[in-house]
What we know:
This protein is α/β, with parallel strands linked by helices. It has three domains: 66-161, CATH 2.40.50.140; 228-472 and 670-711, Rossmann fold; 477-634, P-loop containing nucleotide triphosphate hydrolases (Rossmann fold, 3-Layer(aba) Sandwich), CATH 3.40.50. Helix content is 39%, strand content 18%. The protein is globular, with a radius of gyration of 31 Å. Keywords: ATP-binding, DNA damage, DNA recombination, DNA repair, DNA-binding, Helicase, Hydrolase, Isomerase, Nucleotide-binding. This is ATP-dependent DNA helicase RecG.
Amino acid sequence: MANNRSTPPGPAQGNAAANSPTVDQVAVTALKGVGKQLAEKLARLGVFTLQDILFHLPLRYLDRTRVTPIGALQANVSVVIEGEIKAVDVVYGRRRSLMCRLQDHTGTVTLRFYHFSGAQQQRLSQGTRLRCYGETRRGASGLELYHPEYDFLDQAQPPPLSAHLTPIYPVTEGVTQQRLRGLAQQALALLDSHSLRELIPATLRRLHNQVALAEALRYLHQPPRDAPVTELLEGRHPYQQRLAFEELLAHQLSLWRVRQQIQAEGAPPLATRDDMAARLLAQLDFELTPAQQRVAGEIYADIGRPVPMLRLVQGDVGSGKTVVAALAAVQAVANGYQVAVMAPTEILAEQHRRSFEQWLQPLGIDTAWLTGRQKVAQRREQAEQIASGRAQVIIGTHALFQNDVVFADLGLIVIDEQHRFGVHQRLSLREKGAGRGRRPHQLIMTATPIPRTLAMSAYADLDCSVIDELPPGRTPVTTVALAATRRDQVIERVRHACGEGRQAYWVCTLIEESEVLQAQAAEATAQELQSGLAELRVGLLHGRLKPAEKEATMAAFKEGQLDLLVATTVIEVGVDVPNASLMIIENPERLGLAQLHQLRGRVGRGAAASHCVLLYGAPLSQHSRERIRAMRETNDGFAIAEIDLRLRGPGEVLGTRQTGDMQLRIADLQRDAGLLADVKRCARALIETEPDLSTALIQRWLGRNQDYAKV
Length: 711
Ligand code: ADP
Ligand code: MG
């Protein structure tokens, strides 16, 4: 690859001593005043090296470059004022406070201190001249500054005002603003001797209108007094965007590298067997929707090639992803390969097992079943079936990843509801069935639509198919929100609906993670509802039940032997009972929007008009109110996902596991979505021509999260 190394990526080309270490190689302890203790505190801010100090960007800025006449002060602005103390009082109100009247030739204003020492009180005596920095508020005595920072102006020559805007950094206990400002200044000064490697070549920077990194950093730590503060505050300044650009670029490169490594290995080409597909389709009592057909076609094209497929299928709840996965599975089996189908929960896995067995057994395809809760003997028996190749389609939970599970010849992996699996888990699955220089194809299905902006970056390593229509005949779910005070009315509504032969879900939510508490809450609710609704058959479903019990309850509900199913959020995924047309969700304010949408997707699957009642506990927070409004207003999962993104931000939307993988320090996927197209182009150019710059970029931004970049 030596020939790829055109011009070496110049460390601030020229001015840096060739051998001096770069800023990422120098620990913060090299700075004046940083000992072991401070270094430990800085570590809490993620700051270990000089480079980290430079990348620890201000949250906002104060304008301390000019003095405002006191007479011109307005409320709620950050100001610098100068004047003479005219009066000092200790006032005993609700809290004791020290108040100083400060006057210049235009007016007077009050400085108020709730915490003050005797020494401080003495120095702030009448006649003292001060320069104060602070925020004005409307207080008891008119405009006041609470706890301003101040300098004494007792010298004949007052200290000069700052020539730059003053940065406000994210701080942690024991590290003050002042301290961070000093460290940033030191680090900037060292930029000349300890260069910061510029990792985006000048040609690419020009192409994408990006400045040099060092220039951006100098500006951001000390912007000129006329800098556009609003733009800076919003993170939209071109120099901030320069850093966001580079960070997103690093993520993109890392994901592409994973993809490249996978695709460098071959995969078994799976020729399309229309006869097998036709046999599966002939058994269904429905026709595929055009969207299902299109996506199946995209999958067939992928798996037909000798390169591992990496495809994400997005489709709203109920759009019919399972049958599309089954079609792909049939193709793999028809070509003599095994298929692993993995789901995140036992209940969902069981649901898949039922569907796959029902569809595949008539075609003479053998299935196996693997979960973490199986007895050892049973598990061993299944593992043998899998290792020998007798089992052709293996369905299970993440137990499928375990080391003792060896596949005879895995050709395709199907993962459902991928948002619950982290990138790491995906990677470890890829290891499965690797060998003989080949990897299985991968199909990932998610019912949590991922907003386009997120999909582009977080899933850069995946091709994407969207099932963008629901099967015909579905009626949209009508959603209403009622306060918990109307619980009795809602119970009557359940009585009425079930009296008419319909079925209902009653979902109990609990914030606690504890399965035990959730189970208890659901049990209590089930008992209460059963005694209030004596004529109905009430079932109970929660995570603590034995698999056989769960299965029995689900089967009973499905067959109409239960009218009302009281459940925890375990029914969020997969459960499919078309006759259920009413869902009550208790305390919906405790759930995220995506989860609410998932839950609601359990109704509206049959022809009957369906209803969802959100039985909320008042008062609602602003966010909860917005979530509930979104639920009432739309049934469209993609619209919900966009609202969710707006309310919670991308880290949350991608789920906790992935947040760990995709932590962005500077970029904001939503705000910086506009950069992504350029980032992609730039990444492509780099990966082809500058592999070691790519490596350095990944190292710089994801260095402490190495597994992410590795296969
Ligand atoms: P999801 O995309 O949420 O996983 P499923 O695959 O569970 O959806 O499908 C939901 C229900 O719709 C199942 O009962 C399935 O058999 C049925 N279904 C799937 N495709 C169609 C279709 N084209 N027409 C009618 N019903 C369909
Ligand atoms: Mg599904």
